[in-house]
Amino acid sequence: MRRLGVALLGAGRMGQLHAELLGALPEVRVVAVADPLRENAERGAFLARAEEIYLEPLEALDHPGVEAVVIVTPTPTHAALIREAARRRQAVFCEKPVALDLASTEAALKEVEAYGVPFQIGFQRRYDPGYAQAKALLEGGEIGRVDQFRAVSRDPAPPSLEYLKASGGIAVDMAIHDLDLARFLVGEVVEVQAWGAARVDPRIGALGDWDTVSLLLRFESGALGVVENSRRAVYGYDIRTEVFGEKGKLVVEALPKTPLYRYGPGEEVRLDHYRYFTDRFREAYRLELQAFARGVLEGRPLSPGPRDARESLRLALAATRSLREGRPVRVEEVA
Amino acid sequence: MRRLGVALLGAGRMGQLHAELLGALPEVRVVAVADPLRENAERGAFLARAEEIYLEPLEALDHPGVEAVVIVTPTPTHAALIREAARRRQAVFCEKPVALDLASTEAALKEVEAYGVPFQIGFQRRYDPGYAQAKALLEGGEIGRVDQFRAVSRDPAPPSLEYLKASGGIAVDMAIHDLDLARFLVGEVVEVQAWGAARVDPRIGALGDWDTVSLLLRFESGALGVVENSRRAVYGYDIRTEVFGEKGKLVVEALPKTPLYRYGPGEEVRLDHYRYFTDRFREAYRLELQAFARGVLEGRPLSPGPRDARESLRLALAATRSLREGRPVRVEEVA
Amino acid sequence: MRRLGVALLGAGRMGQLHAELLGALPEVRVVAVADPLRENAERGAFLARAEEIYLEPLEALDHPGVEAVVIVTPTPTHAALIREAARRRQAVFCEKPVALDLASTEAALKEVEAYGVPFQIGFQRRYDPGYAQAKALLEGGEIGRVDQFRAVSRDPAPPSLEYLKASGGIAVDMAIHDLDLARFLVGEVVEVQAWGAARVDPRIGALGDWDTVSLLLRFESGALGVVENSRRAVYGYDIRTEVFGEKGKLVVEALPKTPLYRYGPGEEVRLDHYRYFTDRFREAYRLELQAFARGVLEGRPLSPGPRDARESLRLALAATRSLREGRPVRVEEVA
Amino acid sequence: MRRLGVALLGAGRMGQLHAELLGALPEVRVVAVADPLRENAERGAFLARAEEIYLEPLEALDHPGVEAVVIVTPTPTHAALIREAARRRQAVFCEKPVALDLASTEAALKEVEAYGVPFQIGFQRRYDPGYAQAKALLEGGEIGRVDQFRAVSRDPAPPSLEYLKASGGIAVDMAIHDLDLARFLVGEVVEVQAWGAARVDPRIGALGDWDTVSLLLRFESGALGVVENSRRAVYGYDIRTEVFGEKGKLVVEALPKTPLYRYGPGEEVRLDHYRYFTDRFREAYRLELQAFARGVLEGRPLSPGPRDARESLRLALAATRSLREGRPVRVEEVA
């Protein structure tokens, strides 16, 4: 009944969620929380029951009790922090993505592999009970050979233009979750065709980005897939995934959020719906951190690991190229 | 590919529904439609593709092509029309109930049995695909021994006070459908305890009737049941039935009516809901008439038959007595 | 309360469905049924309550009571029968498609337009209560500007190779229904990219056809769409359609077929599912024929009409070209 | 950002759940865990991150950091522990029930009130998001005057006969949760009629207990209610609650447990279902403890409190009397 000594790097909005979840895991002892804003660091430390706070992440890494780090800082800092942790032989959990380009991603992961430290990337959907059960059923042959895949994700509202400018574009920032699910549930993708538009806000188009995209995927296995994303769904967070095979179909969709049905005038029944990904995937965030902590404590391999961090990014970059060039793009073109 | 020659007696609101359904059954040739209002008779004949119209039901019975009658006239006329048809050796389909009291019911059914004419009573729910499949599963042992039964029915709005005065009370007019389902799905009931109130309209209470009732049932098998009714549900027609057994549970409930989900602002999903029993049970009404026609043409026994007409009424009368006297009533007390 | 005099041409499997539905419409008097197989013609006449049977469709057209024809013969005969009816000034309802190529389609429709006869094409989904309500809501602005569209259709099992050889290929035979829905619900499509595979049966690939296809659509409005089809879904008929807009989302999907929930051992709940399109769309078939009859009787314009017959085919042909050539195809290329 | 110092008394099966939940609440610092089995106490302390373990609950109460106690020990010890905590001016959270009889319950609660310590009873359903939202909607007038109430609860399997002997009978042990919901959502109950049977296991009947019960309730407001319970549902934990009013209906039921739909051969769709109450209500258990901690820290009144502990028990005892005597029982008879 040992607890893993963890440093939490980053205590902004997502960092506080991780702080609360880490603080609630019996397997974890958060020894340090780092955030440049003292208020964030203090709030994070309260939630995580952490012993020390730091304004500088590298100092937190040097705390002697740190066996593992959980990185929830802004994306541009990820690669360097991964390297620093790897050099200290600390296990690494990093929110996705490692970086917005393949070169930095590969450089950081090379170091992880060189030092042999355990590494897990934060594609949290893989730990959602619905997706995890779908994966188990697929591996058990429940629907046989997979022939088609569909995934849709829509956010309730677009992020700020500031955020978007640094996001790497909708494919790298948003579709990557659906592309990772495609890889998780069906296998590697060899070709992608993507069409996009700026429907929600013309300023997003002016950035050279898109807010509405639809993609065709061709899997190595010959299966076909489609992915759809939008930056705005007024009814809340919209996520549904379907895997169709020779012996059946699996659909992952949470509806409704609260187990309450309202019957009202006008022959109408109303349910409520998820508001956002932190709402829909709170349990998945908890489970991925628990899997990380248990995996490190027990010396078991972590998943999703470096390969997933790299290949899901490569696929997102191929989609971005297709969006720009208006033609089908082979994933291997992105190197 | 013979068609059964049918006289439709009664072409009011429910009669017109029957006219349209009979006119759509290839197994049926409606030779006569009777209604004291010429306009109703004409409309019914148009819908039923009938050859002749009558203002007087007995004249319709004398049409030489009549092999069977479908009785949708006001309740007080049912027993006499059943007798007249039986004497003419015509098969009888009668909308429920035969009569509001047991004596008239038994007298009419005795004649039916004496002449040996086929007889079917209009408990249409038994022909709804959901209930019919539930019955088949129960007979196949799907859930083993039944231990509990629940049925709820609520109408969208109370009928007129005129109607209510002649209705026999809520148990005989409304709960009887749930009580018949109880008998159909689980078996005979030996004891009932009913509590009632006039919540929707005090004038209903002033008639000595109730608009809101909840019942406990004890089945011969030892199983327990509950039934709930209300004369008003602002969200439309409300009907749900549950059968719980040692190996599982069956629930019959249609939701939504139209296969359309509306996702709107405010994280809300809306479905629509059935408006009324003619809406929810249109297909059941069609199927019960088809079963009647086919059964008569092929000489097969009809169901539900005289015993169901009598026993479901007896149970409703026992519930009425319990409502009045505030005590558990043995069904056998009603004779 | 006049009835429209109809000749039903074709009384095979689909013809018999139409016979039964026409026979059940009070607005219709089927005066003639034609089928080269006497047995089919007789069965169709029984179901439709038709007065005369013919082995030769042109003879049926000459029956003096024929005001309108319902064409359910094999596809290659459609265009000629449409022309013959048009020349006789008879209103025409034709099962889709008019023909497998654009030239024959346009030739037949030109004649329809020249004679000014009412014409309706059998895209029955438009009359399904779910799709019809979706259309009404879209026209009422329920979800504002449409941004994305998704449709999936999967048949329970592939038809015979004989059938497939003459089918025009999966896009013209199957995707056309989803493409027509796209046009119905969202508007005209200007570009399509389609990828296909033969996953279900390699013999389908050997015919130069596909059994599994996924399509990207670009609408004139700038909206994006995806369509997915498969020739085999072991769980039954699979159809789901989603329209996503700036103010909400509409989803049309019927689940379950029967209003019965089965709770069984192993913490499991089971529903049943539609078996095939005749099962899922029976009411739509009835409603489209009723709309046709009422429209002709009342002199109102019919829908979907010649333009829909032509444009939905053109779109399917564009998809076929994209499947063959592996590139995005502008719909206007198909002329 | 202060944490409430809590002693957890009892670390058996339910105690460990509370340990884990308390350990995950940032508002709480568990200073002591007590259980007569050292193994339980140690496991509980690990989960709760507690500082000290005790084999004797009274010693834990004497730990100087204890501001509040959470009592999850066996029922017969509750009343004495409540008193001891009250005397120490510690806030009390007690798993239901305080005691199996009204006299002991009232004695313990009198002391709580005398010392003015905050007290909360563990009717966790009140904190489930579905029930809590239903309550808020009811208070907001969403469905107007309530006319009917229905609640069903069924456990997956009966507890041991040992447990049952000391349980107080099915009404006090099991129906009490539904009766408390009735009071929470609708208001006080004045009369109850209960029928019961031993269907699942005759040995339960031999104990003078029942495993299958159905109840009628009459509320002070004139509304009617039904409650159904069974000790065994092979499909898992079964809980559904309906509140019907003049302006609508609210239904609380969680279906399915995991957001995964499985479409399989035979036109079948499968969902999964909750296994047990700890599964269905895990979040409610967390939220009730959070509400307790926050309420004590902020000096706000706790709910459900002493009155609910007493009145829901009184109602369960009235149901027990009705089960025994086979007659309607006025709740006020139980004193």
Task: Write a short abstract of this structure.
The structure is a homotetramer of 335-residue chains. Chain A has helices at residues 13-23, 38-48, 57-61, 78-87, 102-115, 129-139, 161-165, 170-185, 202-206, 277-280, 282-298, 306-325; strands at 4-9, 28-34, 52-54, 68-71, 91-95, 119-122, 146-154, 189-197, 212-219, 224-230, 238-245, 248-252, 260-264, 268-272, 329-330. Chain A is an alpha/beta fold.
Reconstruct the topology from this structure.
Four copies of one chain form a homotetramer.
Chain A: E1 4-9, H1 13-23, E2 28-34, H2 38-48, E3 52-54, H3 57-61, E4 68-71, H4 78-87, E5 91-95, H5 102-115, E6 119-122, H6 129-139, E7 146-154, H7 161-165, H8 170-185, E8 189-197, H9 202-206, E9 212-219, E10 224-230, E11 238-245, E12 248-252, E13 260-264, E14 268-272, H10 277-280, H11 282-298, H12 306-325, E15 329-330
Describe this structure in words.
Four copies of one chain form a homotetramer. By secondary structure, chain A is an alpha/beta fold. Chain A is 39% helix and 26% strand. Chain A has twelve helices and 15 strands. Chain A has helices spanning 13-23, 38-48, 57-61, 78-87, 102-115, 129-139, 161-165, 170-185, 202-206, 277-280, 282-298, 306-325; strands at 4-9, 28-34, 52-54, 68-71, 91-95, 119-122, 146-154, 189-197, 212-219, 224-230, 238-245, 248-252, 260-264, 268-272, 329-330. In chain A, the strands form three sheets. A seven-stranded mixed beta sheet of chain A has the order 12-11-7-10-9-8-15. In chain A, helix 4 links the parallel strand 4 and strand 5 (91-95). In chain A, helix 4 (78-87) packs parallel to helix 5 (102-115) and helix 5 (102-115) runs antiparallel to helix 12. The longest helix of chain A is centred in the C-terminal third of the chain and has 20 residues, at 306-325. Chain A is globular. The N and C termini of chain A lie far apart (44 Å). Chains in contact: A-B, A-C, A-D, B-C, B-D, C-D. At the C-D interface, strand 14 of C face strand 14 of D.
